[in-house]
Amino acid sequence: MAVVEEKSHQDNPLVEGLERRPIHPTTMVIFGGTGDLAHRKLLPAIYNLAHEGALPERFNLIAVSRSEMSDEEYREGARDAIKQYSRREPDAQVLDKLLEQVRYVPGTFDDDSVFDRLGEDLEQFDRDAEVAFNRVFYLSTAPSFFGLIVEKLGEHGLHKHDDAEVRVVIEKPFGTRESEAKALNRQVLKVLKESQVYRIDHYLGKETVQNVLAFRFANGMFEPIWNRNYIDYVQITAAEDMGIGRRAEYYDSAGALRDLVQNHMLQLLTLLCMEPPVTFDADEVRDEKVKVLHAVAPPEEDEVVRARYTGGMAEGKEAVGYLEEEGVPDDSTTETYVALRLEVDNWRWAGVPIYLRTGKRLARKVTEIAVTLKPVPHLAFKADGSVGVQPNQLILTVQPNEGVSLSLGAKIPGSQMRIRPVNMEFLYGTSFLSQSPEAYERLIMDAMRGDPTLFTRDDEVEAQWRIIDPILESWEKDKTPVFEYPAGSQGPEEANSILMPGHRWRAI
Amino acid sequence: MPDAAATWSGEDVAPGDVEEALRHLLQEQYARDNAHAPARVLNLVVVIDREWRGEIMNRLEQVGRYHASRTILCTVEPRRETIDASVVLTVEGDADRDGLALMRERVMLAVGEKHLPKLDTIVDPLVVTDLQTLVWSPHGHPEAVDALLHLSQVVLVDSVNEPDAASALRRAKELSEDAYVVDLAWLRSTPWRERVAATFDPPRLRADLLRIDSVTVRHHPQSRVAGVLFFGWLGSRLGWKAGSLTEANGASRGTAHGPRDDIALALETESDQAVPGLAGVEIHTSSGSSISLDRGPGGLVARRRDKKGKEQRWSVLGASRGEGGILGEGIRQALLRDPTYAGALDCGEALLR
After folding, report:
1. Considering only CB atoms, which chain B residues are within 8 Å of A400?
2. Which of A363, A424, B108, B235 is the most exposed place for a label (fewest CB within 10 A)?
3. pLDDT at res. B219
4. What is the pLDDT of residue B59?
């Protein structure tokens, strides 16, 4: 990551020692500027960057959306959103100054006049400042508009800019099937170079996820055992206690597999299984991640279980089943839970089952990677009168409490050599002085400074879909049943069927 | 405000008593609620005058999320003969809601001046082993800092508190021979340094760095040293050879020798400024262009004039961190290393010779 920055600043002796390297003056354009994501995440993230002095020295923002309103009306809406969703109380003066640089362009994304006006506004910012501003187009719209907007940017010559960079951030989901993702890549790359495209998966912006890399590659003690000789199996869990809320329309068309497995969970898998990159340069890291994805075969039908929640108790209250949720069609077959068994078929990991599971309305909210080591080859102690020696487990918890725990066998005090497992726990929160910035703050800043390390590359997103697509195809043919589990439970019993002998799911 | 989880106090105690009390309190607290996890990252040893205890404790409260894990506050009373101590474990956050609440430890030691030359023997048993230890002595007491140097890795200073700029830089340099120095006067200038670096970052403007022919810095009346450090930073990064800087009528003027030309330096006092630190920076080049930065609402006001005299003005966004924020940043910086401070210190000190 640092390599990209260093190259661009190497002739400026004043940047050494600065934690925040200069970012070229930038105009950011949010397509879908009145949407939920813009209000809840993007605008507060931009404000927080401004508050900390982390935005480029000169910064403008243009929002594009369908609603008809003036610049001033948009600014007021943005002010309210920032006040409501910012992680800190906004400073009135900073907020005023930020909003002074905000403009609004109303219209639909297929309307050429919208792009004409956008082009004029962008030019005007440049002319007024006598600087060619970098341009970051953030596509925070329904996925069906991604290709269209990129095409329009190309048609209106906004995909390039003399003496400055143009970058396009594309929200998820990037396609809903492999064929769609490939078609979208083709459409986008007709207009832009891959180096201009920043496919966002906000999960990668979380400090906690980046810490998986730090844990693996900054600690020499784990590398010798990080392979098939010592690791028995791996479980990656992303469990939520909440239901689908008011997202029925989106969720019923997506389901758990598309919502979390295709992107977030496969990203965790790649970070866990990738080889150490030579440097943390964007393409070095992404090359290694893609190699992992290429080594994963799509699971067979009996290696996948899907299910949906029924009524039960969740978050301490009565909870309705998925089919009773508002907006969910009666005949829905959408899964709210999925568990699958994968294998990374390479020298390091061959033969190690990697179990992924995710679901809504499970017993609690937790995202973790559990690595179970093989048992010791010979045990001299008797297990009589104790639970005996259990395999060591290394747990990397991503949320809610980021940390690492290692289960060890220890002697129970007494005259006999009886063993029980004990946990050695380390929580990142106990060892760092600062709270993590929001994932979107980090990713927006990375896009502005041109560091794509934490964004998904074209071949990476296609490789993810290659694993997931056959599952969706099989489900479309109704070959696999949708099992059920009560809200607030550990998930469906049937999930045990994909476990290899001797393996078990960790309690959520 | 954090909640007190457990407390202990004693009069006329030995350091071992305090260490034992800490251990017991931690064990008891963990047995009571294992969701209260002790933070483990940094020891902070603060040496202060007894009568200013409240003010310093307020400042420490304001650092917010940058609290050290274990703070050992040594309050000095001139004629005190014995050591009194108290220990407070405080809990931040809601373990019920977050599943974990951070527990921090504060030890208060009432000591006399006679204890200061050997303060290390009192503090040593109380710091968490293997963690970085940061020493801060805002009311002077250099003998205490010298005693603690061998068990600390980082010393926090605020050069604006020294009687004059030359002695401030000399002291910081002395300390930096034994420990890493974090200087609050330096941290206050970070946004200014970031913005000047950004100004010259576009490749077409980098050549102007060699054409700088004058720099004027305005500062709070007590913050002359911050201006000198700023000159020192520019000089050390741009390869200037120090000339001289002389003070007259509340302002300082001098020169540095650049690779091409001499650079006129000026430090001016901004008597209206209420907070310590810089008030404005103005840089001119021999090609006729200039850049200036001044404090303004919501950040800094930047003005650039090109060689034809055309001026542009814009706002560089950023909220004031306040003195609490600066102290918090100082504590955070104890975990980092800024390779440019030492060069700025050397160059600044040479300017004042």
Report:
1. 98-99
2. A424
3. 95
4. 86
- Residues ≥6 apart with Cβ < 8 Å to A111: none
Question: Any idea what the Cα angle at residue B12 is, between residues B6 and B17, rounded to 5°?
Answer: 50
B198 vs A contacts (CB less than 8 Å): 22-23, 56-57
Pull the structure tokens for residue A82: 């920032």
Measured in Å, how far apart are chain A's first and last C-alpha atoms?
Answer: 34
**Average pLDDT for residues A183-195, to the nearest whole number?**
97
Contact predicate A9/A41, CB 8 Å: no
pLDDT level of residue B185 (50, 70, 90 thresholds): very high
CB A61 within 8 A of CB A28: yes
B245-250 average pLDDT score: 84
SS3 label, residue B272 = coil
ipTM: 0.88
- DSSP bridge pairs for A362: A489
pLDDT by residue (tens digit) across A14-38?
A: 999 998 889 999 999 999 999 999 9
What gap in Å lies between CA A211 and CA A223, rounded to an integer? 15
- Tell me the chain A residues in contact with residue B69 when contact means C-beta distances shorter than 8 Å: 430
Q: Judge residue A88's burial from the number of C-beta atoms within 10 Å of its C-beta, 0-12 exposed, 13-18 middle, 19 or more buried.
A: exposed
Quick one: how far is CA A162 from the chain centroid?
33
Reported in sequence order, the residue ranges of B54-196 that DSSP labels E, i.e. its strands, are 70-77, 84-92, 101-112, 132-136, 154-157, 180-183
Instruction: Check B206 against A430: CB less than 8 A apart.
Output: no
Rounded to an integer, what is the distance from CA A399 to the centroid of its chain?
13
Which residue of B41, B65, B201 is the best one to mutate when testing the A interface, meaning the one whose CB has the most A CBs within 10 A? B201
Distance, in Å, from the CA atom of A342 to the CA atom of A95, rounded to the nearest integer, reads: 48
Cα separation, A146 vs B96, whole angstroms: 42
Nearest-angstrom CA–CA distance, B117 and B141: 9
Q: Which residue from B minimizes the CA distance to A89?
A: B319
Q: B272 exposed, middle or buried (CB, 10 Å; 0-12, 13-18, 19+)?
A: exposed
| Least CB–CB distance from A433: residue in B100, B237, B331 | B331
Is the CB of A16 inside 8 Å of chain B's CB atoms? yes
B332/A94 Cβ within 8 A? no
Question: Number of residue pairs across A and B with CB atoms under 8 Å?
Answer: 128
Mean pLDDT of B215-231: 95
Q: Shortest CA distance to A104 belongs to which of A50, A61, A43? A: A61
Q: Which residue has the tokens 């589990």?
A: A485
A117 touches chain B (CB under 8 A): no
Give B193's contacts in chain A (Cβ within 8 Å).
14, 18
d(CA B58, CA B213) in angstroms, rounded, equals 44
Residue with tokens 């998904």: A456
Contact A105, A63 (CB under 8 A): yes
Token pair listed for B228: 């000198």
Hey, are the CB atoms on A97 and B37 less than 8 Å from each other? no
The conformation of residue B205, written as its DSSP 8-state character, comes to: H
Q: Which residues of A are catalytic?
A: 264
Tell me the C-alpha distance between B234 and B209, whole Å. Answer: 10
Inter-residue contact B215 to B266 (CB < 8 Å):
yes
Q: How far apart are CA A374 and CA A228, in angstroms?
A: 9
Please give the Cα distance from B189 to B224 (Å, whole number). 12
